[in-house]
Amino acid sequence: MSGENSSDRSMTDRIADYLGTALGTTDLEMTGVERIAVGWSHETWLFDATWSAQGAQHQRGFCLRRDPGNALLRDLSNLREQYRVLQCLHGTAVPSPEPYFYEDDPAILGAPFLVMEKVPGECPSPWGREGRRFYQEAADRGVLPGDFTDTLVKLHTLDWRGAGLDFLGVPEPGTGFILREIAKWRHLIDQAVAEADLDPVLVDVLGWLEANAPSTDRFVLVHGAYRTGNLLIHDDHVSAVLDWETPCIGDPMYDVAYMLSELNREGTDLLSNLVEQDEFIRRYEAGTGLEIDVDVCDYYHVLYSMRSAAFWLSASNLFATGRNPDLRLARTAWSVPVVLDQAARRLGF
Amino acid sequence: MSGENSSDRSMTDRIADYLGTALGTTDLEMTGVERIAVGWSHETWLFDATWSAQGAQHQRGFCLRRDPGNALLRDLSNLREQYRVLQCLHGTAVPSPEPYFYEDDPAILGAPFLVMEKVPGECPSPWGREGRRFYQEAADRGVLPGDFTDTLVKLHTLDWRGAGLDFLGVPEPGTGFILREIAKWRHLIDQAVAEADLDPVLVDVLGWLEANAPSTDRFVLVHGAYRTGNLLIHDDHVSAVLDWETPCIGDPMYDVAYMLSELNREGTDLLSNLVEQDEFIRRYEAGTGLEIDVDVCDYYHVLYSMRSAAFWLSASNLFATGRNPDLRLARTAWSVPVVLDQAARRLGF
Amino acid sequence: MLPADELLARMSGLLRHEIGPAVSDPFPKTQAFMASVVLDKVAAGLRHGAAHAQANDADRRTLADDLRVATTAADPAPLRAAIDALPTPQGDGALASLVTALYAGRAELGPERFDTLLARVRQTLRARLDRQLEVAS
Amino acid sequence: MLPADELLARMSGLLRHEIGPAVSDPFPKTQAFMASVVLDKVAAGLRHGAAHAQANDADRRTLADDLRVATTAADPAPLRAAIDALPTPQGDGALASLVTALYAGRAELGPERFDTLLARVRQTLRARLDRQLEVAS
User: Fold this and answer.
1) Cα–Cα distance between A331 and A338 in angstroms, integer?
2) How many Cβ atoms from other residues are within 10 Å of residue B325's Cβ?
3) Fewer CB near the terminus (10 Å): N or C of chain C?
4) Whether C67 contacts C122, CB under 8 Å
5) pTM, whole model, 2 decimals?
6) Do A and B make contact, counting contact as 3+ CB pairs within 8 angstroms?
7) pLDDT digits (tens, 9 = 90+) for C75-111
8) What is the SS3 assignment for B256?
């Protein structure tokens, strides 16, 4: 990743070439090209472009996500599916970027990519000091907490069948949704760890989750990681819901439990460092007409611990197999016992 | 050692204060202050100073060596003794810097130090690419090789008693010199390694050295590490012999063996990357009237391997005990088996 | 010579205090600080490695003894096999098989015995996890 | 999870190719490259550690057997004691004592037996040194 500047430059040229062709112009110019601080997910590029077509001048901001093939959750999620989700969401009440293009052909930019609208707003990481202050100040001003809740309400009240999102797979009522979700993350674990090397606590947690799966039959569009850091904020409002890597049709309590989780409080009493719990519950229940089921949320907390273990195992395996040299991935191997400890304590040992 | 600039500055001020007082002036100014690339030995500062005294303007270059207490060979050598050796050498045929001051009192610069003449010349490291080229080019010009040999002749023909160097200790004829030398390095080993952790090959080498010590009774001033890198070179001549950390009164073959050693050839056929072996032997024997004893030199090669082991053990111990954080010292732990292998091969196993 | 765990811990400090702060590019800087973190973990692993392995072995032997008393030949074969494998050198892997066998045999064992046996296994898992946390956190 | 030796070898590469080149100050730069070198050595030590310890143990046991045959109760007591200590868990330290005892008993043993015994000991020392060199170089 050092010496990236020269390859960045050539990537910019290739993006311009592609976009000019896609937009039917020969004079496209890109400005303000910015490669967003490399996370563990897909590469993200932001830029503005001007071009002329059909006798008029055009100007627009773009966001391009590229899949170099060594990103986290690579096996659970792909850009093609994300593109399709964004297509379904466009024009609905859920704030999301408009998708423009998706390309599979690695000949174009060396890897699959999608191009979408650059939505105004910022997305501070909730784990850093600056991010904590950002959300704390927004909480104090009092507008964002409500909008944060309302956006989840929009998600959970969306007519997902009408929007065409049933392509994500509609679970059977009963334990269908949960068993599918367990199987999904178990698959990630199996890709990262040989059966013989499975941690016995993780085996216990998986066994417990399967044996104690509650019945659910109210299905909505579930984001799967609804929290600050995955949302674009503009003028104290959620301007776009981002990171559509783990959406599914399922139990709304799955998102609610994630919100209520202590994982996302950043050491404050506020959910996601933003919303008072009672106010969230009141506003969410009023908005959706759903009642929050605390027992089911407790169950999901164990599932989220298992999911975290799967995530860290997958991450450290990405390093171990040499697919990604980022040491932050290697470090996650020691996060596994920490999340298994959380699960074990919830299971009473 | 980061953030050294600010402490460097204050060290410069303290040096100026001291030197002004020592030279009886109030207007001393230091220029061109340079702290030489930190080696593993004492700290070395070079600078020029101007001052007025007794109605006249003075200008002189100085070299200051300071002992921060965590340098290599700290236990074998100290600045007070080095200062005394330089005093003895001043005015003799051996080119060496004139010593001006020595101070024990840590209140002055935080540690003992000596101040001496800044002799013109340079001292490239023979291990680096630049240094190798420097000596290769000097060898091609043909002047320095002879002067390099002649300077050793000057050392070995010096009237050391007349110069007062008998304070270094005069060994008994017979095995006195060698057993004292073995004991000196064995002492360094014992300070670095507990008896129970001694490498058995090193024990073998020490036992062999003691059991096979040859008899020597021609004693001269021995430098103890006569090679390029420890000499200042100016206009293709040795302008000063430096690094008086291991001098002794002893067998001249001890220095000769060091010169002949493969350790100091830097991959060329030339001794110290500089002198042809036959030419060195001819010129050295003619200059000193001594005959080179190849068997004794072979013995000393084993002794030098032991000495290297002692040196590396001492170095890695300096790191291990936390007295010096430089990782280059930690690395030397793995040099010990390499030099023990050299010794073992000379011993026939 | 410094034991490997101490050497790595020292290098961790060097990366945190000397090398990391001297890097300005974000990627290598992050890697330098992360290398410091990882070296601390590896050092802790080496420091505790032998003692933890020994304690885990002893725990598994005691667990096998207790479970042999609490089970009979009539219990599921995979469960009995996993119990027998506990004291072997590959016993750490047998813990996972044991838990798998317990859940697979849940119906056969009945809820009460299942809970009793699982509770006993979890004692061992807890102690093992605590050791992992000593290295991980 | 990556074994510690592989992890350290990877970190060594990172220090050499990513972190070291990104440092400009001479002291931290030297330290970064030296950390890469040291991590390679530590990794090699971990990689070979168990196998080398086992081979050294086996060698010492064979050496003890051979030396017991070649010595008698009339030989110097420290030599006999060092031979007896060779197969113990502290046997590696006993090698040094053995060599010390040999040189100390040189006169008593006579030059011929001293040479024979030393030659046999050196076989073991050579094999041990070769293992050290596998890690060191």
Assistant:
1) 12
2) 18
3) C
4) no
5) 0.86
6) no
7) 999 999 999 999 988 778 899 999 999 999 999 999 9
8) helix
Task: Give the HSE-up count for residue A24: Cα atoms under 13 Å, Cβ half-sphere.
Answer: 5
The token duo for D75 is 């030989």
Backbone angles phi, psi at B240, to 5 degrees: -160, 140
**Dihedral of CA C58/C59/C65/C71: which sign?**
negative
Q: CA torsion sign, A13 to A17 to A23 to A28?
A: positive
Structure tokens given for C69: 């008393």
Interface ipTM:
0.85
CA–CA gap between residue B30 and residue C105 (Å, rounded):
86
Summarised one tens digit per residue, pLDDT across range A206-225 is 999 999 999 999 999 999 99
Q: Is A331 on the interface with C (CB under 8 A)?
A: yes
User: In chain C, pLDDT over 90 holds for what percent of residues?
Assistant: 91
Residue C100 backbone phi and psi in degrees, to 5: -55, -45
pLDDT tens readout for residues B13-39: 999 999 999 998 999 999 999 888 655
Q: Which chains would you list as touching C if contact means 3+ CB atom pairs under 8 Å?
A: A, B, D
> Is the distance from CB of B154 to CB of B94 less than 8 angstroms?
yes
C contacts of A2 (beta carbons < 8 Å): 25, 27-28
Q: How far apart are CA C129 and CA A139, in angstroms?
A: 38
| Amino acid at the residue A342 | Q
Burial of A53 (0-12, 13-18, 19+ CB in 10 A): middle
Task: Confirm or reject contact between C99 and chain B (CB < 8 A).
Answer: no
Neighbouring chains of B at 3+ CB pairs under 8 Å are: C, D
Residues 6+ apart with CB under 8 A from A125: A131, A229
Burial D34-64 (b: 16+ CB within 10 A, else e): bbbbbbbbbbbbbbbeeebeeebbebbeebb
Q: Which tokens is A243 given?
A: 């990171």
Identify whether the C-beta of residue B208 lies closer than 8 Å to the C-beta of residue B100: no
How many Å lie between the alpha carbon of B185 and the closest alpha carbon of chain D?
Answer: 17
The answer, yes or no, to whether residue B71 has pLDDT greater than 50, is yes
CB contact under 8 A, C11 and D46: no
Distance from D25 to chain C by nearest Cα, in Å? 7
Amino acid at A280: F
Task: Evaluate whether B320 touches C2 at the Cβ level (below 8 Å).
Answer: yes
Q: Taking the alpha carbons of A148, A154, A157, A162 in that order, is the dihedral positive or negative?
A: negative
pLDDT the model gives residue C58: 95
By the 8 A CB rule, do A48 and A30 touch? yes
The answer on pLDDT for B1 being more than 80 is: no
| A269 backbone dihedrals φ, ψ, rounded to 5° | -80, -15
**Do the Cβ atoms of D104 and D81 come closer than 8 Å?**
no
Query: Nearest C-alpha of chain D: how many angstroms from A276?
Result: 39
CA dist., res. B192 & res. B187, Å (int): 9
Structure tokens at B191: 């300070």
- For residues A320 and A318, give the distance between their C-alpha atoms in angstroms, rounded to a whole number: 6
Lowest mean pLDDT among B259-263, B337-341, D5-9: B259-263
Q: Closest chain A residue to C44 measured between Cα atoms?
A: A334
- What pLDDT score does B42 carry? 72
CA-to-CA distance for C119 and A235, rounded, in angstroms? 53
- The SS3 of residue B233 is strand
